[in-house]
């Protein structure tokens, strides 16, 4: 009976730690989201969460509230305490020094600088460690960070705003607006959760897009609104078609342009990166996403036309698809949200798994991912 009560307690406190961790989903990049709750004699005595890269980790914030009560207490933390000197001291050492007796962890940290070393240090210093509590929930929260640490690749989300028949624009290319206000507001939150927003020069010019987060998320803590950083805006521009006066360059936020042309830098906020073209004269997409991962970009939101979406799917570069679907039809002459290079048979279809289905006014939001990515 005692074991069952302890197990229930572990779940209760870890759920709270995960809720705290989620508060950092818009501001911790390139770091993961981490929450921490410190419990003594069945009561919470302190809590904290990682807020911004370079600032104290969740364990440190929690210990600041605890003081001497940390002696003999239990620390519930969503990610293994770090074991290396980065921008902040190792959290595993801070916990030992404070006198924490038990540490319960959702996930071990896949960062090669940690990767079990924090757990080893804690155990070597007499701290009891239990790992794997709500591990799937923890991994889902930090899925982009986990992928970059384990595979050296960014998590890629393909976003579409479509009609019921999967069209993203009419036969003339007009797309503003297929979905309603609430759906478009939710896109702002989706952008804010990603480290980068990627599109093509053609799409950006046609829509006069700026690819910024225009409205801060309503669940962004008030204390962090002044510290929110816009996602990196990434443009694929093979032929260097994007004019200097394009709307995207009018914002005071960085832009990264991948191109097959040699261009000189004439704007401090614009970085031009040359990439090779393939035999079909398209940009080397895997090379682009590898470069983004090297730049510590955990997650990329793709907002572009159907050709790029189809190419990304065809090359296995998409992890998740988010579709905002309006109850309307445009017919076969309209532009499709996904255009594959070749026709697919039923056996070749892309099979995904639903993650979320939500009603937003008159529209529906559907999020789906490939099961193996989680």
Task: Write up what this structure looks like.
It is a single chain. The protein is of the alpha/beta class and 374 residues long. The protein folds into 2 domains: 7-142, 3-Layer(aba) Sandwich (Cytidine Deaminase, domain 2); 152-370, Dihydrofolate Reductase, subunit A (3-Layer(aba) Sandwich), CATH 3.40.430.10. 27% of the residues lie in helices and 23% in strands. It has 10 helices and 16 strands. The strands form 3 sheets. Strands 11-10-9-8-12-6-13-16-15 form a 9-stranded mixed sheet. The protein has a 5-stranded mixed sheet with strand order 2-1-3-4-5, sandwiched between helices. A two-stranded antiparallel ribbon has the order 7-14. A hairpin with a 2-residue loop joins strand 1 (35-40) and strand 2. Helix 3 packs parallel to helix 4. The model is unreliable at 1-5 (pLDDT under 50).
Provide key terms for this protein.
374 residues, alpha/beta, Cytidine Deaminase, domain 2, Dihydrofolate Reductase, subunit A, 2 domains, nine-stranded mixed β-sheet, five-stranded mixed β-sheet, 27% helix, disordered N terminus
In short:
Helices cover 27% and strands 23% of the residues.
What secondary-structure arrangement, pairings included, does this model have?
Blueprint: H1 2-22, E1 35-40, E2 43-49, H2 58-66, E3 74-79, H3 91-98, E4 102-107, H4 117-124, E5 128-131, H5 135-141, H6 143-151, E6 155-162, E7 167-169, H7 181-193, E8 196-200, H8 201-207, E9 232-236, E10 255-259, E11 270-274, H9 285-294, E12 299-302, H10 306-314, E13 320-325, E14 335-336, E15 353-360, E16 363-369
Parallel strand pairs: 3-4, 4-5, 6-12, 6-13, 8-9, 8-12, 9-10, 10-11
Antiparallel strand pairs: 1-2, 1-3, 7-14, 13-16, 15-16
